[in-house]
Amino acid sequence: MPINVPKQLPARHVLEEENIFLMDTDRATTQDIRPLNIVIVNLMPEKERTETQLLRLLGNSPLQVTVTFLHTATHESKTVSPSHLNQFYNTFANIKNQRFDGMIITGAPVELMPFEQVDYWEELSEIMEWSKTHVTSVLHICWAAQAALYYHYGIGKFELPAKCTGVLSHTVANSTVELVRGFDEEYLAPHSRYTGTSVEEVEKNDKLLLLSSTLDNDPFIILSKDEKHVMVTGHLEYDDLTLADEYYRDRNKGIDAAVPKNYFPNDNPEIKPLNRWRSHAHLLFSNWLNYYVYQETPYEWK
């Protein structure tokens, strides 16, 4: 999928080196098609890294995509320059009168806090409420998945005895559902979280479908029955070194961080890890874009 991104966006240079199909606005306007308009609410501290990860996965389909990045106005980011936000990001106030075919809400390092104590919770709640009428389908990642389960379906989170970090094995409950079409019966995906979601609460909710779980029966991919919301409790979008960088960061801070499970070869942090989830990451995003965004969104919003 050719992605329409600004020429100056730092992620563009990384993706061009990977031969990801990109285009700029000048070229996009010469194509007589309607692109999919995707808004990404980027709550991650390392915004540029997350931009690259998500754009890489949005580029694996024959459709044209235009991406709008959103940051929260009620939270001051300390890990990205104001000039980057000013140049490449919007706030909700600037786009709330628009309609989008799809929306992605990223994770955030706030999961140990009660939802209402997160400084941008009121703003995010407004965005999630707005998405009911202004977005065809929403993909929520990690903490955002828990936030969506809490806001839309009243399902809370609970603190784990220890951080869940590593590359875990998962099974698929129903491979005929389009979102997981083509998935292996058992596949790998990264996790990095301190909290969990009750599988019993998900399964008893008549508005939700549990599509995939870890081998320990923790929910991983959840789909609302109206196909409006996709909740993914892990990080299929992570690149090969993201978990390693998180581990080294915590160790450098003096945190007694556990080595991510099933990640480093021979569990040795001195050996470069391999990406063993890339194909399923691309498959999840392409399935979401095709079946839940492109196939469902109107050509012209009324």
TrEMBL record:
Which biological pathway? Amino-acid biosynthesis; L-methionine biosynthesis via de novo pathway; O-acetyl-L-homoserine from L-homoserine: step 1/1
Q: What is its main location?
A: cytoplasm
Cite the Pfam families for this sequence: HTS
What family is this protein classified in? Answer: Belongs to the MetA family.
Note the InterPro entries from the entry: Class_I_gatase-like (IPR029062), HST_MetA (IPR005697), MetA_family (IPR033752)
Q: Where is this site: Important for substrate specificity?
A: S192
- Function text: Transfers an acetyl group from acetyl-CoA to L-homoserine, forming acetyl-L-homoserine.
Cite a single GO MF annotation. Answer: homoserine O-acetyltransferase activity
Q: What catalytic activity does the UniProt entry give for this protein?
A: L-homoserine + acetyl-CoA = O-acetyl-L-homoserine + CoA
Site feature (Important for acyl-CoA specificity) residues? E111
Q: What is its EC number?
A: 2.3.1.31
Active site: which residues? C142 (acyl-thioester intermediate), H235 (proton acceptor), E237
Biological process terms from the Gene Ontology for this record are: L-methionine biosynthetic process from homoserine via O-succinyl-L-homoserine and cystathionine
Q: What is this protein called?
A: Homoserine O-acetyltransferase
Q: Can the keyword Acetylation be found in this entry's annotation? A: no
What is any one of the record's Gene Ontology cellular component terms? cytoplasm
Superkingdom of this entry's organism?
A: Bacteria
Q: Which keywords does this Swiss-Prot/TrEMBL entry list?
A: Acyltransferase, Amino-acid biosynthesis, Cytoplasm, Methionine biosynthesis, Transferase
Where is this protein found?
Cytoplasm
Q: What taxonomic classification does the UniProt entry list for its organism?
A: Bacteria, Bacillati, Bacillota, Bacilli, Bacillales
Give residues annotated as binding substrate: K163, S192, R249
